[in-house]
Structure formats: C-alpha cells, structure tokens
Design goal:
Length: 162
C-alpha cells in the first residue's frame, strides 16, 4: 500500500500515478470532533460578536450615508436660498441704480437750466452795460464833435474858426 507522499514522490520521479488511496482512520474523526467543538465554543465567543460588529458597522455606515444625504439636501436648499436672495439683492440694486440715475439726470438738467439762465442773464446784463457805455460815449462824442471839427478846421485853415 502506497501512501500519499510515496505517490507524490513516485509522480515526481516519472513513475505513472496509480489510484490514490486515502486512509480513513481515527484522526479524521478527532479532527471533525475538534472542529465541531470549536464551532460550538467560538459561536458565542467570536462569531456572534463579529456578526454584531459587522451589523453595527453596516448600520453606522448607512446612518452616516443617510446623514450625509440629508446634509447634501440641506446644503442644496441653503444654496438655492442664497441664490434667490442674491437675485433679490441684484434686482434691488438695479432698481436703486436706475432710481439714482434718473435723479442724477434730473439734477443735471436742473443745473444746466440754471447755468443757461444765469449765462443768459449775464449776457443780457453785459449787453445792457455795453449799450449804456455806448450811449455815454455817443453823447460825449456828439458833444465833442463840434469842438473837434473847429480844431481840425483851424488846423487846416491855419486860422481860428468859431
């Protein structure tokens, strides 16, 4: 009868392999009994705590995922709220800019009108002053014309003209 090691050695030596013969003795029974005893002993000591640990880990992971999902939903809501608020602020700012632009245009028109009226008044006052000075100069020239004509005639004639 050949044992397993003898068969393996024979196979490596190039000999043809024959049918494998396994010895079934008491050691197989001892191993099965030890295995079953260990299974019963380790079930409450190792396997059940490990299973509970794995279940707890799964629950915590699922709980964390659910919490993360809720946080993402809440963040999305907050983001949309911020976007709506920014849009409202932009609209308000645009309305305020338009109101200020209209007020500024009105003020500019008022200032330009006042400046125009003021310049018209200054021009009219200047014309009036020029007219007054021209009239005064004309009267003075009219008064001096006769005397200047006599002086010129006296100078040309060489004698006194009256």
């Amino acid at each position: 009868m050949m044992t397993l090691t003898a068969l393996i050695d024979a196979g490596f030596a190039g000999a043809p392999l024959a049918a494998v013969r396994v010895d079934f003795d008491r050691t197989v029974i001892y191993a099965a009994v030890i295995f079953i005893a260990l299974a019963f002993v380790l079930q409450p000591l190792l396997f059940e705590p490990l299973i509970k640990l794995f279940e707890l880990r799964v629950k915590r992971t699922e709980g964390a995922r659910a919490a993360a999902r809720e946080m993402q939903e809440h963040a999305g809501e907050l983001l949309s709220k911020v976007d709506r608020e920014l849009d409202r602020i932009r609209r308000t700012a645009a309305e305020e800019r338009e109101r200020i632009r209209v007020e500024t245009a009105k003020l500019e028109a008022k200032i330009l009108e006042e400046a125009r009226e003021s310049s018209v008044a200054v021009v009219a006052e200047g014309r009036q002053q020029i007219e007054t000075e021209m009239s005064a100069l004309r009267r003075e020239l009219d008064a001096r014309t006769a005397q200047m004509a006599r002086e010129v005639a006296s100078a040309v004639l060489g004698r006194e003209v009256t």
